[in-house]
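User: tokens in, sequence out, please.
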């Protein structure tokens, strides 16, 4: 297993965050997604440090060794913005470059609109900028995909919390895989087969696709989620409507330099959404990795690192 630095605990915004660091130089903060951890950046921390940057990856609130506040509203995006601002202050910094994946990318995009002073630049993995809808997105998902769609299911019950908590290792092993489904194959499926249903995935008798994690890496994830559970991470989803409401009247324009790295087989995102970003992100460079799924920085770390470091050297050189 790739060597991973030890955590240090940082007090910020009334909670403690576990923070993992490598290197010295201009700060880069890496924000993970669901169901991940700072550990998902294990291939990026040493590469960034070797290139002359100070790479900082926190377990975000609700995850890993970080605190897990009990209320659903404790996971609003404003709380997470304040966690990050407090982390910067603790580091003696007013800004950082951000690298973000999945939910981390959703947070980083919104922070770029609401708290742009915190970001020098942004590298977003997999999730493109998605402009605010005129309607509550959860209601749109409910109408389009029905009650079994995972985001809708998370709103309606604690079924997922209990099921994932019952066997974290099985859940991580079932979901964090190279599933081998190309975008063309996915688009050819009937509509009812194209709904992302994490509960159904958890209950699969047969593992689908190719293992992404080694046994030791899978053990690391399983141990963390066995100790901390899934309710905190799922509560991020339960604030989707609150977050949407809070963005009313916010200009939908990202004004700092951005690198987007997508994956051709990440079927959660459409090519049209990636192309549409240019209308909202003027200073945008975009790449899509071939033969890659949703877990980009873990699935293709070498190619991901090469794209990131090339952009960083050109836009934010370490020296």
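Assistant: Sequence out:
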């Amino acid at each position: 297993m790739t060597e991973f630095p030890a955590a240090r605990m940082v007090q910020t915004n009334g909670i403690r965050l576990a923070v993992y660091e490598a290197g010295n130089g201009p700060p880069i903060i890496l924000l993970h997604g669901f169901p991940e951890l700072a550990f998902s950046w294990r291939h990026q921390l040493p590469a960034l440090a070797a290139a002359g940057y100070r790479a900082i990856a926190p377990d975000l609130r609700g995850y890993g060794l970080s605190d897990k506040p009990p209320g659903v509203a404790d996971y609003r995006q404003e709380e997470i913005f304040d966690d990050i601002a407090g982390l910067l202050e603790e580091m003696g910094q007013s800004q950082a470059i951000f690298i973000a994946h999945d939910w981390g990318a959703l947070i980083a995009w919104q922070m770029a609109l609401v708290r742009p002073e915190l970001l020098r630049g942004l590298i977003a993995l997999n999730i493109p900028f998605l402009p605010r809808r005129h309607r509550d997105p959860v209601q749109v998902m409910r109408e389009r995909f029905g009650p079994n769609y995972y985001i809708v299911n998370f709103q309606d019950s604690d079924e997922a919390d209990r099921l994932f908590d019952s066997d974290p290792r099985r859940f991580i092993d079932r979901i964090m895989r190279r599933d081998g489904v190309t975008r063309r194959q996915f688009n050819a499926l009937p509509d009812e087969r194209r709904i992302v249903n994490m509960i159904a995935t958890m209950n699969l008798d047969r593992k689908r696709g190719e293992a992404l994690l080694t046994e030791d890496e899978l053990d690391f994830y399983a141990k963390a989620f066995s100790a901390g559970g899934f309710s905190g991470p799922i509560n991020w989803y339960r604030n989707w409507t609150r977050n949407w409401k809070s963005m009313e009247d916010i200009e939908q324009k990202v004004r700092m330099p951005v690198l987007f790295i997508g994956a051709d087989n990440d079927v959660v995102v459409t090519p049209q959404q990636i192309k549409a970003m240019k209308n909202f992100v003027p200073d945008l460079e975009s790449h899509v990795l071939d033969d890659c799924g949703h877990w980009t920085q873990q699935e293709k770390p070498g190619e991901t690192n090469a794209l990131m470091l090339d952009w960083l050297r050109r836009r934010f050189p370490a020296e």
